[in-house]
Fold:
Amino acid sequence: MSETLRLFLVCSFFSVGWGTVRFLQRPPNCDKDVRLAYSVLSTHDVYNRLQCYLKCLEDPACLSFNFEDVSDNKTRVCELNSRIVDKRGNNMEAREGYAYYEKADGFGKGIQSCSITDKSYVYTNIQLQSRNFPTYYFSYDTSASDRAKILLDDRKTFRLLRPGLTGEEGTVSIESNDKPGHFFRYRADTNAVDLWGTDPASYSPETFYEDATFKIRYGTWFTGYLGFEAAYNPEKYISHGNYLLSVATFADTSGFKNNAAFKIVPAPTYLYTGIRMQSQNYQSHYLSYDGNNYCYIISGDSKTFNIWSPGLTGVAGTVSIESVDKPHWFFRYKISNSAYTNLEYRPSPAQGSSNFDEEATFIIRQDILYSGWFALEASTMSNYYLRHTGYRMYLHHNVHTSADAAYRFV
Structure:
């Protein structure tokens, strides 16, 4: 930039005021503790905002800049940006001491404020279960660039942002709980679905937001199940094939509908994970199961369990005991089998007979027999407890004097 032009711009800046210069505008709420993320072209040390402003004017690719307004240093940070704030403020982040400014010719394309959008989630801790493979759930392969899949007994959880990233009413975006800020999106060139962050290299945020935004179609094909239709590519739905997730054009066939139908199920909550249960009167023995899945207390056994709370019936104050080595397998007593306890498979957290759920749900009765030890009472059969006889576990009535029914978590 020539010195004559630079002098002209400086004079113009001081004569008309900061907020009205033709070359630069600042939307409301952009003057304190905010910066544009994911878009920095270059970073410079400057002495004042004017220097940062002039550097942006010198670079044709610069549409906005972040300026460190508050600092104890002699120089301030000036970040030149290749983009402007999007319609929802998704690419705006809080940063103490920073302010954000736009070129006037780019300003009209953005929102009129830097207020950071509050995210609203319709679900916060869920799994997405396949209809035709009910033990498979939405997931992603961390060894393959987070390629989206349905995986057997996978425990990754998600939350649904509503409205979706584009801000359009009636839409959602699917965000990972394990990797906040990462959403399922489809690739327009391959239709493959993968998990991407909101800072995609060489990928415009606007396109990313559209490709990560879906419309939920409830009960379209099956009661209790839904489809995820691409919000900006109608008639294309998330579907699985060979366990990989992609978007596919709707086909009026049972195969397509089953592959594109999913159920929202609550993720399990645990009282304890990876614990053992020790017998009070045989303290070298632990609650376990043999090769036939019959439940015993076994000497020195190292099998561990997750304790669901609430239990499978969903009643507050109850628990269910799930094997860590065999997900979806629970301790269950059967009145029809002399009340013996076995480890049995439950098809999924959203399925299974009501009898299964009731017979695999217990109430912890702490200190009922010995201080520091508990008994497990059947949730639907008052005064019936799990105990061992000949090391075999079964349900027995009235054990208030029996050490065979006392256990503790270790």
Remarks:
- The mean pLDDT is 82.
- The radius of gyration is 30 Å.
